[in-house]
Each structure stands twice: as structure tokens, then as C-alpha cells.
Design a protein that fits this description.
globular; Fumarate Reductase Iron-sulfur Protein, Chain B, domain 2; single chain; mainly alpha; 133 residues
């Protein structure tokens, strides 16, 4: 299968993902009032000198928000930036609390699904020392 067909197939799967989650994405993005309460419970935000790029709202808006707005048609560079937001800056611990009921982990998980379809995902250093098994 050539890369054009592969890309078309991936874009079709991305369209399916976005279509299934459309209502949740649209409602969540429009409901966020940027109160930053979700940031208070985010250990990544608190352990990184309260860098605004670690706020859960920032991660959602600049990952699934951007993907949804552009219907998944982003450059590799844009997907690479999103990959950093949703894997390096979020561990999906589910501690982020939104008083409006926005499910931030669900939105980040959706962004991860889309990124995987485009071949962007977290890689781990196989040479890193880990626990003995």
C-alpha cells in the first residue's frame, strides 16, 4: 500500500474518531470558562513552575481543539507539538477537576487516538534503567 492510500485511510479513521466525539468536543471547548481550577490539581502543572502550557485547559484547546478545528488536517510539525502536549505534559492521571464537568482526560485520550492514527505517539528510551522484573 502506498503512502497516499495509507494517509487517506488514516484520515478516514480520524474523521470517524472526530465524528463519534463531535458533541463532547464541541460542548467541552465552548463550555470552558478558563477558570484554571483544573490546573490546581494537575501535578504536572504544579511541578513545572506553573508553566501555563501545562494547564489542562491549554493542553485540551491546543490538542483536540486544534485537531477538531482543522478536521485532523495538520502538518507533521503541528502533530509533533501536540504529541508533546498530550504525552510529555500529561500522564492521564485523571486528577484534573473541572467544576463544569468537562472530562479533560477523555479529550486528551481522544487527541491521543488521533495522533496514533497519524503515527505520532510517545516513545520510550529502551536503555533507561527500570525496575528488575
Amino acid at each position: 500500500m502506498n503512502s497516499i492510500n495509507t494517509d487517506t485511510a488514516a484520515m478516514n479513521r480520524i474523521a470517524d474518531i472526530l465524528d463519534k466525539k463531535r458533541d463532547m468536543i464541541k460542548l467541552s471547548l465552548s463550555a470552558c470558562v478558563h477558570c484554571s481550577i483544573c490546573s490546581e490539581s494537575c501535578f504536572k502543572f504544579n511541578s513545572n513552575k506553573k508553566d501555563p502550557t501545562y494547564t489542562p485547559a491549554y493542553k485540551v484547546i491546543n490538542s483536540i481543539g486544534r485537531i477538531y478545528k482543522k478536521k485532523g488536517k495538520l502538518s507533521d510539525s503541528e502533530y509533533d507539538k501536540i504529541k508533546i502536549l498530550i504525552w510529555d505534559k500529561c500522564v492521564l492521571c485523571m486528577r484534573c477537576y473541572c467544576p463544569l464537568g468537562i472530562s479533560i482526560p477523555s479529550l486528551i485520550a481522544c487527541a491521543r487516538s488521533v495522533c496514533r492514527e497519524k503515527g505520532f505517539y510517545r516513545t520510550y528510551d529502551e536503555t533507561a534503567d527500570g525496575p528488575e522484573i
